[in-house]
Each structure stands twice: as structure tokens, then as C-alpha cells.
Amino acid sequence: MHAVPQLEVGESVLVAARPDDPPWRMSVDLMQHGQITLASQDDEPLPDEWQQLHEVHVTCLGRFSVYLVHVPVVRVGTTRLVIGEPGDDTAVQRRAYARVSSPVPATCALLDAETNTWQPFEAEVRDLGGGGCSVLSDIVPPDGTAMVISFAVDERQPVVVVGRVLPRDALPTIGKPMTRVEFALIRESDRDRILRFVLLTLAARRHVPQQL
């Protein structure tokens, strides 16, 4: 059983009635007496059917991991949801990283070790998370090659990281070869920005019209 992540007041989480439901973005509003009060974003009214819920699925991000936690519902208000605080016996699922599978605006450059120069190249970044990403490109970089990637994840200056090309296992292709990149040099504040971008992107699923 995985350790239960520690939530803090002001932290953003995703909440869904079932694991596959489009999630609601909420924030931790209050913690006391073994209970956690979650507030909806911009005081958006919660679904009427949530009044009948006995448990919800809460997704929260750690520095390096994403956790899916099943917690009991104490009560449901118009814009607030009170849940039981996770304990040692709480069911917790953990994945290595929260990731965004859709394309992310970015620019890339590879280090040419022989000339000690950076060579920019066209690539599409996918599968972005706190520890790395995948890139689709006509170029297939050698294992271990240093790569610089600049991400546009919010309205601030781009996030710039130095990555290392991981060994090419049997990876799928989506029209172009896929290369996995591990972040070797990244500021923790920039990692936090990436994780926040991931959380906001996951939450945006709820606002995408469902296809019939």
C-alpha cells in the first residue's frame, strides 16, 4: 500500500465521482478534526447528483508522483465538499508521473558533442510530466544525448530544462519516431509549474463537449 499524500490548505486537486469521470478542479479550503473541506473553482455549483455520493476519487500531485485516493464523503454543499481525511488504511493508487498526452508548445535543441554547439530541430512534445516527456521528430537522437527543451506552460516566461535521451526501447510511432527524454536539470519551481500545467490540463477535460 502506498503512503497517503499530505494535502495542504490552498492546494489544488481533482475530484470525480468515478475514476473515469471528467474531474472537477477544487482546492483545499479547510482541514480540521479529521475532515477536509474542498472548494470548487470560482465557486462553481457542484453537480446535484453529488448529494447522493458516499465516496469520491481525489487526484492530487506530489513533487514527482500523481496519486488517486478513494475517500468517504461527509457532506456536500453548493460549492463545498467535505471529505474524510485519508488514513493509513486509505486505498491509494500511485503512478510515477502525472502526464499530459496531448501536444505541448515547445522548442528543442540537441547538443552536437563534436562541435560543442546546440542544433535546434522541429519536434512535437507529448507525454509531459514532472520528470520528463516524449518527443516526436524526424530526428532520432542517440541514447544519452543532451537536449534542451523550452516549454510554454503558462503566461510567464518559458520553462527551460536540460534533458537526457533515454534508451530507445520498443516505442510506438505516431507518424514519426518517438524519443523519451528524462529531465536531468530543472529548477524545482519550474517542475512545480509543469505539474500545475498538468493538473489544469486534466481538469479541462470536464469542459470538452462529449461526442455522442
Explain what this protein looks like in three dimensions:
By secondary structure, this protein is mainly beta. It folds into two domains: 12-96, Thrombin, subunit H; 100-200, Thrombin, subunit H (Beta Barrel). It contains one helix and 16 strands. The protein has one helix at 188-203; strands at 12-16, 24-32, 35-40, 55-61, 66-76, 80-84, 92-95, 99-100, 106-112, 117-121, 124-126, 128-129, 132-136, 146-151, 159-165, 178-185. It has a seven-stranded antiparallel β-sheet with strand order 10-9-14-15-16-13-11. Strands 1-2-3-6-5-4 form a six-stranded antiparallel beta barrel. A hairpin with a 4-residue loop joins strand 9 (106-112) and strand 10 (117-121). The longest helix is centred in the last third of the chain and has 16 residues, at 188-203. It is elongated, with a radius of gyration of 20 Å. Residues 207-212 have low confidence and may be disordered.
The CATH architecture name of the largest domain reads Beta Barrel
Calculate Rg over CA atoms: 20 Å
Tell me what portion of residues adopts beta-strand conformation.
35-45%
- Structural class call reads mainly beta
Overall spatial form:
elongated
Number of strands: 16
Major sheet description: 7 strands, antiparallel
| SSE pattern, N- to C-terminal | EEEEEEEEEEEEEEEEH
The CATH class name of the largest domain reads Mainly Beta
CATH-defined topology of the largest domain? Thrombin, subunit H
Oligomer kind: single chain
The percent range for helix content is: under 10%
**Order of the strands making up the biggest sheet:** 10-9-14-15-16-13-11
Distance between the termini: 38 Å
Unreliable stretches (pLDDT < 50, length at least 5) are 207-212
